Amino acid sequence: MSEMDRPRETLEMAEGVHWVGVKDWDRRMFDRLIPLPQGTSYNAYLIQGEEKNALIDSVNPGFEESLEAKIRKHLDPTQLDYLVMNHAEPDHANGFSHILSLAPKARLLASEKGGEMATSLYSISEGRIETVEDGERLDLGGKTLRFIDAPWLHWPETTLTFYEEEGILFPCDFFGAHVATGKFYADQLGEIALDYAKSYFGEIMMPYRQRAKRAMDKLQELEIETVAPSHGVIYRNPEKILRAYRSWTEGELARKVLVPYISMWGSTEEMVEVLVETMASEGVEVVPFNLATGSLGDLARELVDAGGIVIGTPTVLAGPHPNVHHIVYLAKKLNPPARYLGVVESHGWAGGAIREIAQLTEGMEGEIVDTVSALGSPSKEDLKKVIDFGKEFAAKINSI
Ligand code: FEO
Question: Atom 3 of ligand 1 has which residue's CA nearest to it?
Answer without folding.
Answer: 89
